[in-house]
Design a protein that fits this description.
195 residues; elongated; mainly beta; 5 helices; 12 strands; 6-stranded antiparallel barrel; 45% strand
Length: 195
């Protein structure tokens, strides 16, 4: 069974001479990564399945050794790669937390109007979430604006070269709400943020 994998961390350089490397946690929690027996190193379409020999927390990072890497030179080839695991081994979610992979592909919805008009106004897809990026104050949704969107002017939807624009929307409850990863929809609170 080929179960979906989620990113739990990132390789952040060699540590020592035996092929150990530093891991940065994607969630900020290291305990669930330290307990892993197997990980997949991923970069784009390349991947390498690895058996964990040891994992130890220290100095705000995790030091991991996998059977398949045995020198700092081998580790350097994988610097910046993602650590992915089957969903069941990922960090458990709390309220108002989502896995990045689940947010990708969600439709960003706008319900026009204001006041009582908003109740009957049609809902329109203004874009699709293509990625989630880390910003200085939190995470940002990368949104590819929809060609068929009628509430945005054409000069807002396209770059000067005519390509569909991508915009960044803060992932917080002041800018988006009703995040439903099962129905793959997220409601936009303020249309001005797309301009």
């Amino acid at each position: 069974m080929n179960e979906e994998q989620l990113v739990v961390g990132f390789v952040r350089g060699a540590h020592g001479v035996a092929g150990e490397f530093k891991v940065e946690s994607a969630s900020g929690d290291y305990a669930h990564i330290a307990a892993l027996k197997e990980v997949t190193l991923r970069h784009g379409s390349d991947s390498k399945k690895c058996t964990v020999e040891s994992a130890e927390e220290g100095c705000g990072t995790l030091y991991m050794k996998v059977r398949e890497l045995n020198s700092p030179e081998e580790v350097r080839k994988y610097n910046g790669w993602e650590l992915a695991v089957d969903r069941k081994y990922a960090h458990p979610l709390e309220e108002n937390e989502w896995y990045i992979e689940d947010l990708k592909g969600c439709s960003l919805l706008w319900k026009g109007g204001n006041g009582t008009a908003a109740v009957t106004a049609p809902t329109e897809i203004v874009g699709t979430i293509t990625d989630v990026l880390e910003g200085g104050a939190g995470y940002l949704l990368e949104v590819s604006l929809s060609e068929s969107c009628t509430v945005l002017a054409d000069d807002v939807k396209h770059t000067s070269s005519g390509k569909t624009r991508k915009v960044l929307v803060p992932l917080n409850l002041n800018h988006v709400e009703n995040i439903d990863v099962k129905s793959k929809t997220i409601q936009l609170m303020h249309l001005w943020i797309l301009e």
